[in-house]
């Protein structure tokens, strides 16, 4: 029997009417002979509300307790959806993350999935047609509840699809993947198909429809991933293996990342211990460093790197701590830059993309300060004020 | 190190200010050298609110899903209380029922505790001074979440006390155990000490400060049980072994049970199959039958029994089902009776209690329809309208 994983985010299940409509849709699919695993997030603003309660209680909540609290949101959604399904005659079973066998490792609030046991599902499908699983959560080796961090429910869905060797459909409040953000460039095209690696580059470069980790997981297990609007007839985007996509373009998309923060550190000596201490702290604090450039000369060392602006509190703490041991350390945080990126797996085979982009930006009078390339992308750090104009220039230059 | 179990009900943790005050009290006790296991219920009306949501979704929620939903209430309270404790410098750890190792058997919403592993606690106390455990819940052999039914959090607390061999303090919104309900008889005395068996009789007979099952559990494991008002200086009631109570009175308390329902069944034949079918259904539906009387004569059989009025829906379903197989079955449900009971472990040694009570009721012109006795109690079924007056008469007759 065909099995699929479907995932519905918080805004898709924000009230009981929406949940009921989803239940009816699931019933139709069951009646067409499918077995469904349905991953849901907490209803609407539930998680935000819980976080607000916590903020009023303590400035530094214990992370284990915070994870325990937050997981109740999804636990409620799975209960409700499964009750409704049973009420309309569908055999459904609700499961928390740990009941679905999702074992995690790492930090309580940013855990990674270590293991899923597919037998759990085969057994549950013996008496059920729909298994409703709480997204975003798992259980660690200490038998403590954990959450998967940002975009965690997508990761849950993809991991379950991998364990069951099924496609994964992610339903959200956008129509699919666009060549660039339609809020930035109104004529942006919706892509009907995109490769894993292009999608990963887009996500990593700030086109945040899907978190990189879930696409990466889909890629690793070769799980076809669909992204589309909940209960909509508009066809969304399939994300799949490169080899299954016939026509390749040099550039598939343009991403603009406005959520970056630029950190510059100066120290009068070239001190490897300082750098080791810095990167150890960054790793322990799970702060992801993006572009890095370092200058070492007679004036000492100067290091620049970019991070997500959501890591602001973390990075401040790290830099303050380092300043205690390294009194001469000077640092600066700046959020007046953005990063614009061109993505396309065709770049591998077609030359001249970098220079064409370079010329476009120069002609448009848009200065850039740092540039990095990967096999299928090129990124430029530019002034925040030039962001939207740069998207338009490059979109047109490459006829996306 | 001295270890205690404390339990706070829903009204004691209905807002964050109350939870913070409880946290401060727990901190004081920790600083006096105790290790505490704290069992909490869902905050205030949380459970009612969840039930309301469900009622709007489906008339017959799947019980497994309902249990899964309801357990989120306590999971939230333990998270909040533990966060606050950590915030004020107390090493605390929050645990759901299954994390505390509470394994259950039976019906999802009326489960019984099968097993608790005390090692869980020894290990958690190595790094914590307070363990905050979600009341009312556990996990069954199918790895499904369950709730313990009415008064479930009290049962959790006593079971944890039994597993840890510690006393159990139950904090609520009453000052302790009274000789009779102070709302019915305003001069009712508060008891400073009462035996397990008297307390069980009182609970079973409708003086509902504590559910019978939790007192029974305390009795089985000889766990001293305290009942008092949350954060109050008023001394509550200790419930303990009979042998530790020196002065015994013939009658310790009067209980009035207004939540009873009288069921009468008539059938033209004396049919054992019918009775077997009835009692099997009652057992499967977990409907507890209290007083039973049966008349078999040439007109067939007539059976009367009383049950709790909360089992109304259940009993209706059972009787309707039976009527399908036994067309001549006639039944009647009546809630115009109440049960008044005298309780006292001194009854064993002192005679004349029944006749003295009998005379008091006769003199007061209060007719009674059915009477039952146990070793330490006597109960009379009387008209509901005479309930309060009967309490007053008996209270005074026995100089309680």
UniProtKB/TrEMBL annotation, chains A, B:
Its EC number is 2.7.2.4. Coiled coil: none annotated. Pathway: Amino-acid biosynthesis; L-methionine biosynthesis via de novo pathway; L-homoserine from L-aspartate: step 1/3; Amino-acid biosynthesis; L-threonine biosynthesis; L-threonine from L-aspartate: step 1/5; Amino-acid biosynthesis; L-lysine biosynthesis via DAP pathway; (S)-tetrahydrodipicolinate from L-aspartate: step 1/4. It is an enzyme of class 2 (transferase). Transmembrane segments: none annotated. Residues 340-398 form the Aspartokinase ACT domain. Residues 2-227 form the Aspartate/glutamate/uridylate kinase domain. InterPro entries: AceGlu_kinase-like_sf, ACT-like_dom_sf, ACT_Aspartokinase, AKii-LysC-BS, Asp/Glu/Uridylate_kinase, Asp_kin_monofn, Asp_kinase, Aspartate_kinase_CS. One of its GO terms (molecular function) is aspartate kinase activity. Pfam families: AA_kinase (PF00696), ACT_9 (PF22468). It catalyses: L-aspartate + ATP = 4-phospho-L-aspartate + ADP. Catalyzes the phosphorylation of the beta-carboxyl group of aspartic acid with ATP to yield 4-phospho-L-aspartate, which is involved in the branched biosynthetic pathway leading to the biosynthesis of amino acids threonine, isoleucine and methionine. Belongs to the aspartokinase family. This is Aspartokinase. The lineage of its organism: Bacteria, Bacillati, Bacillota, Bacilli, Bacillales.
């Amino acid at each position: 029997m065909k099995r699929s994983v479907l995932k519905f985010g918080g805004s898709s299940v924000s009230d009981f009417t929406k949940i009921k409509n989803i239940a009816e849709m699931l019933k139709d699919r069951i009646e067409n002979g499918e077995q469904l695993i349905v991953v849901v997030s907490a209803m609407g603003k539930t998680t935000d509300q819980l976080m607000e309660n916590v903020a009023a209680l303590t400035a530094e909540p214990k992370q284990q307790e915070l994870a325990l609290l937050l997981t109740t949101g999804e636990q409620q959604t799975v209960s409700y959806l499964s009750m409704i399904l049973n009420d309309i005659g569908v055999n459904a079973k609700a499961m928390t993350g740990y009941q679905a066998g999702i074992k995690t490792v790492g930090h309580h609030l940013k855990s990674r999935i270590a293991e899923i046991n597919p037998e759990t599902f085969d057994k549950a499908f013996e008496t059920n047609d729909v298994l409703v699983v709480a997204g975003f959560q798992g259980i660690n080796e200490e038998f403590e509840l954990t959450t998967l961090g940002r975009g965690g429910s997508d990761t849950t869905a993809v991991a379950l699809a991998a364990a069951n060797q099924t496609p994964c459909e992610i339903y959200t409040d956008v129509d699919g993947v666009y060549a660039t953000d339609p809020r930035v460039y109104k004529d942006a095209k919706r892509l009907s198909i995109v490769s894993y690696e292009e999608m990963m580059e887009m996500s990593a470069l700030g086109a945040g429809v899907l978190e990189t980790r879930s696409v990466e997981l889909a890629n690793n297990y070769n799980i076809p991933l669909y992204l589309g609007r909940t209960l909509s007839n508009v066809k969304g985007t399939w994300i799949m293996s490169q080899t299954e996509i016939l026509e390749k373009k040099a550039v598939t998309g343009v991403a603009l990342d406005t959520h970056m923060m630029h950190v510059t550190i100066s120290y009068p000596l070239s001190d490897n211990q300082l750098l080791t201490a810095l990167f150890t702290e960054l790793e322990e604090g799970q702060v992801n460093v993006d572009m890095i450039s370092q200058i070492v000369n007679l004036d000492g060392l100067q290091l620049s790197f970019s991070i997500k602006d959501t890591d602001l509190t973390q990075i401040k703490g790290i830099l303050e701590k380092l300043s205690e041991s390294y009194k001469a350390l000077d640092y600066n945080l700046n959020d007046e830059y953005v990063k614009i990126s061109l993505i396309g797996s065709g770049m591998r085979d077609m030359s001249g993309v970098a220079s064409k982009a370079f010329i476009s930006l120069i002609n448009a009078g848009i200065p850039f300060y740092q540039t990095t390339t990967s096999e299928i992308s090129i990124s430029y750090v530019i002034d925040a004020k030039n962001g939207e104009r740069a998207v338009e220039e490059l979109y047109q230059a490459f006829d996306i």
